[in-house]
Amino acid sequence: MAFGFCFGVALLLSLWSRAESAGLPDGALRMECHDRYFTMAVDLSFTGEEPHFEAVDETGAYAITQQYAAQCGYSISVLPLPGDVELRASYFSCQTKNKDDIFTFNFNLNVTHEGKESTYPFNKTCSPSLPWSPREVTCETNYMEVSVKSEVTCPSGTRKDDWSSLKPAHSSTTSDWQVRFQVDDEQFPPMNISDARKQGYVFLLTDGRLVFRAPYGQPHSFCTEVNGVPVEAIHATIFSRQSWVVLMFDLVAACSMDEGLYHESGYMMWETPETLFPNLDGKQVNVGLNGELVAQPVAEDKGFIVGRQNNTIQIGIPNYAEGVYRKSVVNVDLYEFYVFHLYLEQILVDEDHVETRIRFLRTLVTPLLPRPIFAENQTVLVENMFTVYLGDVPEDVQVNAGHLNRQEITVPLTNTSVIMTKVVHPNNTHGYKLKVPFEDPFVMQQFSKEDAVLHYMLDINFTLTVLPENDVYYHMVSVVASVTDVSPPVFDAVCTESGISFKLDHRPFDYLWEITIGLDLLTSELAAQHGYMMSNDSNSLLLEVPLFSHGYEYKNISLKGFFGTFEILVRDLATAEVQSSTIKTCPFPTTELILCSTDGTMTVVVDLSLAIPSGGVAARTNLRDKYCGPTETDRKWALFSLSLNSCGSTVKLNRENVTYQNEIFYSKKVHSPSKVPSENATERVTMQCTYPLAGLIRLFSVYRFDSDAAGIGSVIHTKRPAAGLQSPTIQPTSALTTMLATTRQATLPISYKPAIHPPARHVKVSKFRHLVNALKKGVLQSLQTKVNAARI
């Protein structure tokens, strides 16, 4: 008859699981049922560095130590990459309950927080989704396990208690069951089950299966090589003599102990003999990672290598496969290693087509591999900035600081023109693109005048942090951008109706020079002072210089027109030497004007239409000195050019200025006395030049006129009084006033009529000399101070 406690056929049940985990933070615990084992992963941030697990059944709680785990079908591993501690339990582990292939797990998690120990109970119920094979071998990381299907007819008179020695390891019941170990052809003396348990072996009878488990490295296991692959095996035979019947089970486990070899192509290679068990042929290979199995064709589509050579199965796992863990490490330089949680199933059949399944769970780790990070100079000169790409940065490494030419920066960057952007790639790497404008203060610059080359230089020291350890690694790169044919800036200039317009398109290296008007640096303040209209933005500088404003030089003045020239100087920023200039000369039509040059020449173009009688011509006009006539005339206009101290000019002197004045008269006859009022003339024309007294350096030292600056000229039109009336004050009806200029004016020839100057002119000059003598004492001292300063 069949015993009720004997194994029956395992029912195929759908996966059903239940978990209870009171008191843990959300997401701190993950529990999963797999085909042949159960896993529980707890977040290390919650457990701390030393978590403790206990396996629980109706007899008590048993601490899962390293030794106890290997004996009872548990494995504990710390997974620093996901940051978990993982407990893996065989469906035939010691404290697991099994009823009709429904397995119930109960555990305690003991953690210490702030010196206080807390216990968290967990339970999970699982059922395998695949039927059991007649023989299944599991090669775990710390033990070997073999289970066989048991369908025996129990002899008459055999009691249930005769199997009690095959109960869980903590049971104290004994019987006459014995075990004999065999190494190759050598057989060890038999021992009873209880003695075998004391040596670390476990024999377990559960519903439908007989289980044998042994840690690696046991005295009765043996290591060998099969086709060059290291293998550890153990062969145990358990038997019991019941009356005239002997019950015997042959239990063999053999596991490949290959630790894997990482190939430079990026594959972790692992091998196992194709025929670990004699008289069995290979039928199928399934492979995967982290407890997930897929068929060989599917695995190969994902990049796995599944090959056979010399009766050896070769598995190649690409480092980019989903489920592979990688970790960066700083050891002076940057390194990385990969962790592969290999799961392999090999299905074998004998001549009767009875299946044997071998499952391997292996954690394969590469050695430390150099992890180079590269920097690429992607600078484009026309963009006027450095562009440096830091690439192939692992996903657990980030840039959070750095130095630019030894000046520290932090990421994210704020309040700076420097830009750093992160670039993510699909191969779980990323990079950083750093942009630094050439004109940024971080950038060093060196200009070679001999070669006309401007060098921009930037030393970059990236500070990279490996997470979560926050270990620091530095990557340095130096970049240089050279701009050739560097030349001083050149303005575009065009003539306008009202003056000259200058435009300069900015270049990134224009700062090497400064722009001046004469000796004065061109600034917005200088432009406002002299009446220039200037606009300056990031693209260009626009300068509008009105006619007669400071800086003009005038040539070829006639009644038809004249030429105005304006010059902009470009000087070396360091030495102030003139490197280039932009000179623009434009023709302008002549209107009424007066120019007072620095060498003491007064040039006047004046409208005399109201200052001469009807029918008169401008050619018959003269100055106070009747022999000083115009150099050019038409009917109503006249051009005069004279030295300030000639032609009867009068001089007015005060504490700050000196003014030279003259007047235009009309002569009825060529030789008539001067200063004859014009009949029918309604207007009197006076012209004058005023100079700052402080600028007349040589006024009292040499007999020639020399001024620091041009004078301010005025042409004053006043209405003549009616005949017989005397007006103490004559108000001007109109006046033209010129602006200051610094350029020396060209002297036009003065037209002298053949006559000796009248005595009146000498009287006025004599009076001027007496006035000068009177003021010399008060003014000369201050002038001499300026002269001395100028000589120094």
From TrEMBL:
<dbReference type="Pfam" id="PF23344">
    <property type="entry name" value="ZP-N"/>
</dbReference>
<dbReference type="InterPro" id="IPR058876">
    <property type="entry name" value="Ig-like_ZP"/>
</dbReference>
<keyword id="KW-0732">Signal</keyword>
<dbReference type="InterPro" id="IPR001507">
    <property type="entry name" value="ZP_dom"/>
</dbReference>
<feature type="signal peptide">
    <location>
        <begin position="1"/>
        <end position="21"/>
    </location>
</feature>
<protein>
    <recommendedName>
        <fullName>ZP domain-containing protein</fullName>
    </recommendedName>
</protein>
<feature type="domain" description="ZP">
    <location>
        <begin position="595"/>
        <end position="792"/>
    </location>
</feature>
<dbReference type="InterPro" id="IPR055356">
    <property type="entry name" value="ZP-N"/>
</dbReference>
<dbReference type="Pfam" id="PF26562">
    <property type="entry name" value="Ig-like"/>
</dbReference>
